[in-house]
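User: Hey, my collaborator sent me this sequence without any context and asked if I could get a structure. I don't really work with proteins. Can you help?
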Amino acid sequence: MTVDPCSTDPTSVYKLLIGSVVPRPIAFVSTVSGDGAFNVAPFSYFTVASSNPPVLVFTVGNRATPDPRKDTLRNITTAREFVVNVVSEEIGAKMNLCAGDYPPEVDEFQVSGLTPIPSDLVKAPRVAESPINMECRLLYTISLSGLVNGGNLVLGEVVRFHIDDAYFNNFRIDPEKLRAIGRMAGNSYTRTGDRFDMIRPA
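Assistant: No problem. I've predicted the 3D structure and written it out in structure-token form, which is a compact way to encode the shape of the chain:
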């Protein structure tokens, strides 16, 4: 099967992407609005962009609304900061509750029962139940498309890591304890308990 994305409807292209680029880590992004309202939402178009300095990158899609920006993107472009929280199996169900398309005044922390706690350097709250929080300051936003489901790239420099002591050992994170989850297609997720090693060539 060969597919030309230019002559294929965007919904079908989306299905190909989320079924092929798997598993995807989840950026559970917490922000605060200009009037102090908290927001937390998951994004699976997410990875590391740089380690020196440490930079994370995730994508926020456009909505089919008069203002296509999701609350997360609007808050980040205003405050120029955010927190990325790692999603473990323990909080997966609560993370999923935050994936709904809620009005700006709805606090997803309250919807999910998760706990907002203060950050050190940014105004956006951290998720207390997440084993790893990364406070970020915005470097760039890049609009890749103004179309519905078009992407807005967000790059943020990590200015503070918060790691549960139980998961930390000489700057290594214990994956057995972390039990991070990843995104597949549709409603499917994956666990990270089944791993194997391969030695890189010298």
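In plain terms: The CA atoms of residues 72 and 188 lie 23 Å apart. You can pass these tokens on to your collaborator as they are.
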